[in-house]
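Support case: magnesium ion complex. Customer-provided input:
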Amino acid sequence: MKNRLENKLSMKLISVGDVEVGKSCLIKRYCEGSFVEDYITTIGIDYGVKKVPFNDCKVNINIFDLSGDDDYKPIRIKYYKDSIGVLMVYDINIKATFDSLSKWEKEAEKNGLDLTKCVVVVLGNKTDLKKREVKTDVAKEWAKARGYKFYESSAKSGFNVNDAFKFLFNGMFNRTVENRAKYLYWIN
Ligand code: GDP
Ligand code: MG
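Agent response - structure generated as follows:
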């Protein structure tokens, strides 16, 4: 039963966080293994599909990389619904971007996403820059209190990027399989 379900799996991931914290670069680092200093600003949303192998099957992860710019809010808010994974990013060198995380939670919830049903990974990005304004423990506690997984990362050096995505995808996969199994049980 599990293998048959995995073959058909398609899952939705969104990225949220203030502008310039590194959301697009983190996704690029994970998907392509590269980093660019002058990465083009996300206009509205960037969309891509990543095929990830799980137990010999390839699962489609639909990635919706949302712009943090409020000019694009009317576009962005259409993409929250039906996500199963959330990448929530701030810049450890700019406290305001950490303080914004609760604003991003509210926007997601207000637009149809129940975060308690999602796998949420919080990333404190840009650890390669040495101008830290957010203490690790403070952010870790914030994430833990909400049941979110926490890492610090660098899209530039690649630090923790694979681990974070691996955790996210595994969690999304397990949750989707559980949900499908429940659904199939119900319709049978
Ligand atoms: P987004 O608006 O959150 O999608 O941010 P981007 O991914 O477009 O990145 C914004 C800027 O931050 C770009 O100039 C990137 O090169 C830079 N950047 C992203 N991640 C890192 C990182 O881990 N370290 C450093 N030093 N710069 C980064
Ligand atoms: Mg972007």
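The two ends are 13 Å apart (CA to CA).

Case will auto-close in a few days if no follow-up is received.
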